[in-house]
Amino acid sequence: MDTNPPPTDSKEIATRQIGTGSSIVHLLYNFSKQAGKLAIVYLFGYFNISPAWLLAPVVLSVLREEWGKEKELKRNIAKAAALSNEKEVILARVDDLPAWVFFPDVERAEWVNRILNQVWPNVNHYAKDLIKDVIEPAVQESLLQYKLSGFSFQKMRLGTIPPRIGGIKVYDKNVSRNEIIMDMDLFYAGDCDISFTLSGMSGGIKDFQIHGMIRVVMKPLIRTIPLVGGLQIYFLNNPNIDFNLVGVADLLDMPGLSDMLRRIIVEQVSAMMVLPNKLPIVLSNTVSQKVLKFPEPQGVLRVHVVEAKQLMKKDISMLGKGKSDPYAILTLGADNFKTQTIDNTVDPKWDYWCEFPIHANTGQSLVCRLFDHDDSKKDSKLGLATVEVLGVTRKGEVDQWITLEEAKTGLVHLRLKWLQLSDKIADLKEALHETQLLRVTSMSTAVLMVFVDSVRDLPKSGGKSGGAPPDPQVSLTLGKKTCLSNIQYRTDCPVYEQGFTFLVSNPETDTMHLKVVDVKTNTEIGKLSYNLSALLGKATLELDDQPLSLKNSGPDSTVMISMRLRVLKYMGPSSDDGGDELSVYGDEVKSVQAPPQPSGPAPPLPSTPTQITKQPSLKKHDSIKREDSVSVKSGLASVQSADLSSEEGPEHKSFDQRPEPVNDPMFVSQAPPKVESAPPGLHHRHPSNASSIMSTSDLGKIQLTLRYSVQRQRLVVIVHKIANLPLKDPSNIPDPYVKLYLLPDKSKETKRKTETVKDNCNPTYDETFEYVMSQGELSNRHLEVTVLTQKTWKSPVMGQVVVNLADLDLTKATTAWYDLQHESTKDKEQ
């Protein structure tokens, strides 16, 4: 039966006729499209063209479409968060709450977001000048390396969506009276519209997103309005940046091909606003530019990448997986260093040295990323290790094996040393002696800070008085490092007001070379050479606002320059007790002082199991000093990249507050709260009494440290040691190791494993493992800890414990002993 009544008026009849016509057009379109595809295939066969020419575009098109869908989803989520209010963001992201929820000293920032929303339209004008005058010339120079020219911005609109501030922390302790320091969690996912031309092609950037911790320093404080002389704005570490290419440039927005342009954009942001680079803004004419723009490093971090071991095998061989060709890239702020590549090994030895000037030790992190070099494809990741700079500055010197993150297996051996700055010439002799002992020619003994104020009376083009003014740029070279100033267009008296920092190998013999180049004609229009030994004769090792004559230039050409030399000196551990507000960046782990280990061979085995369990434990790898292995491993390996919006207190003390030695090697801190119940199928065990050495279980006990880092969104687990493993046969001593799983996801992704300690019933590991997870996930997660022995091929289980993470206060590190129990029936079935 027809349920549709016949049309009753002319309007409805016309509508149905249009619908019928549209269906016919759509049918013809599909027919033409399919016929076109068949015609292309036919022509390829007719002209004997290789199928690869047809297959390659199809594969690239599919990959580009899938990659674009994933990126578009992330952008839409970020944009929705930027448009939402604070309540909606919290309700939508219960597992990733802002820092002010957990830390009382981190303030809510909705009042700042309302201010940004009000002033955002005016920011467009400032950003336009900044992009055109600073970023565009730098991008042009970078693209010339790839034989691409003609780059220029055409339209620059930041859109209507302002950035969001997730939280603000203002410091009032250990801060100079002449400045105010605040850290802000900045997130921008706006609707910007930026267009550009490149080699005659038009393109654009949309959906630009940036997320990072930004620091604002207000200095100096003055007694007249506006009370603050200026601002220094910078990112402590490289922010996360993403954007979408549109127009003709959309062809480049594919995996591999767009990396070049994205890398250039990230580099320019780093060169402008990531430490050691700062964006200075002068607010009062009474303040000298030099106060904000003169470099002020706090010291130098000397890094020695010694070696790595047990790296993942990425290369494929005839017999399966072979080895790797590892190298390491070290990143701190905007500075990067790369080690040499060691071929065909998973245990590389680099012996690589590098140094980083540190301008803000609070909040910065050293990241060591390991890669497998591959000539035919993109290099594979082997993991990364992150070290908090503040922890090293407090301890002074650290020698540590660090477990790699984002890797199934692997450790890297780093040695770090914090060198402070001295203005005493007498300290130079000691610094030179130390570098000679290291026998490393790349090491520095001093730091040179240079401030180029201006240049006067440069010669005009052609050397004639009536010629066109030059486009001068200053180049500074010391050793192998060269720094370039901004380009000042069409002027013979350019004002730069820029600061630069150099590491000096030997100030007694080194020379700084300065050149002024006319970028328009690429000719040198002035130069000078300054021997640093001249600074050694100054009382404070400084040269303040000194006009120096330029050679090969005009008769009156001078450069106004200031220089400051500081000698590197090791001053040992910091006397700071870690109780100040700037200690929020580390991650506290309360470690237990391990008893000293004998350096000689192991004592003969006793005849009874009781005697065996009381003997000191011997670790397989004795190259690391026992007195540092526990405190450093439980501190540095877990003290890594930290969010600035964190709580004062439990985040630093493992570096400078090592527990006092105790007579009882089994002494631990207070046990965590007991658990009333556990989920079905899981046998949760309570930590044993801390004051008791003996275990209430006949399977022994294991000592663990559990802590959650809110800043880094990581669960940190440290396996310290095992005590009183049963010995049924004195002639068959176990070879124990510990295996971890994060339940309920018992998979390879959550599996962690310690090293095996041979012939020991009381093994010591002190190994740190991490799980990336949000704090909301802790409520339904359990940690399964299993002790096994490798005496047989099957590796039988010697004991097990399952810890319910929801019942522990993981915002503070908890070290305790847990009684081992028999493996559950459910685990045996699996």
The CATH architecture category of the largest domain equals Sandwich
Question: How much β-strand is present in the residues?
Answer: 25-35%
Instruction: Decide which structural class fits the backbone.
Output: alpha+beta
| Number of strand elements | 34
CATH class of the largest domain: Mainly Beta
CATH level 3 topology of the largest domain: Immunoglobulin-like
Radius of gyration: 32 Å
CATH superfamily of the largest domain: C2 domain
Low-confidence parts: 577-693
Region (Disordered): 591-694
Organism: Nesidiocoris tenuis
Transmembrane segments: 39-63
Keywords: Calcium, Lipid transport, Lipid-binding, Membrane, Metal-binding, Repeat, Transmembrane, Transmembrane helix, Transport
Describe it for me?
Strands 1, 2, 3, 4, 5, 6, 7 and 8 form an eight-stranded antiparallel beta sheet that branches. Strands 9, 14, 17, 18, 19, 22, 25 and 26 form an eight-stranded antiparallel beta sheet that branches. The protein starts with 9 loop residues before the first helix and ends with a helix. The protein has four domains: 233 residues, no CATH class; 124 residues, Sandwich (Immunoglobulin-like), CATH 2.60.40.150; 114 residues, Immunoglobulin-like (Sandwich), CATH 2.60.40.150; 242 residues, C2 domain (Immunoglobulin-like), CATH 2.60.40. About 14% of the residues have low confidence. Helices cover 22% and strands 32% of the residues. It is an alpha+beta fold and 830 residues long. The relative contact order is 0.08. Helix 4 packs across helix 5. The protein is built from 13 helices and 34 strands. It is globular and about 100 Å long.
